[in-house]
């Protein structure tokens, strides 16, 4: 599955321990939830939270600021993080 592949090949090697594509896992961490205005315009938490795997690859990564910073450092470092190659340099070039 996509979420497992990403955890094994990207998130894990980057040390992104609070990042997942699985909403039911993300909900076990401190989490900002999606809000939408109700009929009066007041913001309300979207319930139930949609668990739609078809959106995972297009941007449904749940992450922390620290984890996103690790990803940014690795991308800026050509795939290296803390002196270790964690992503293939060619993959980083193609992503950027």
Q: Would you report the number of β strands?
A: 4
The unreliable regions are none
Largest sheet, in brief, is:
2 strands, antiparallel
List SSEs in N-to-C order: HHEEHEEH
Tags for this model:
4 strands; elongated; two-stranded antiparallel sheet; 38% helix; 4 helices; alpha+beta; 96 residues
Quick rundown:
The chain is an alpha+beta fold and 96 residues long.
Overview of the structural elements:
By secondary structure, this protein is an alpha+beta fold. The protein contains 4 helices and 4 strands. The strands form 2 sheets. It has a two-stranded antiparallel sheet with strand order 1-2. Strand 3 (80-81) and strand 4 (84-85) form a beta hairpin. It is elongated and about 50 Å long. The mean pLDDT is 91.
Summarize the helices and strands and which ones pair or pack.
Layout: H1 2-14, H2 23-26, E1 35-37, E2 43-45, H3 65-76, E3 80-81, E4 84-85, H4 89-95
Antiparallel strand pairs: 1-2, 3-4
């Amino acid at each position: 599955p996509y979420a497992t592949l990403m955890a094994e090949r990207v998130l894990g090697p980057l040390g992104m321990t609070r990042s997942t594509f699985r909403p039911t896992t993300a909900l076990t961490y401190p989490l900002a939830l999606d809000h939408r205005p109700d009929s009066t315009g007041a913001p309300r938490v979207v319930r139930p939270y949609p668990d739609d795997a078809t959106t995972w690859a297009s941007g449904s990564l749940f992450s922390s600021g620290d984890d996103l910073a690790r990803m940014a450092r690795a991308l800026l470092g050509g795939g290296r993080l803390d002196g270790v190659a964690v992503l293939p340099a060619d993959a980083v070039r193609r992503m950027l």
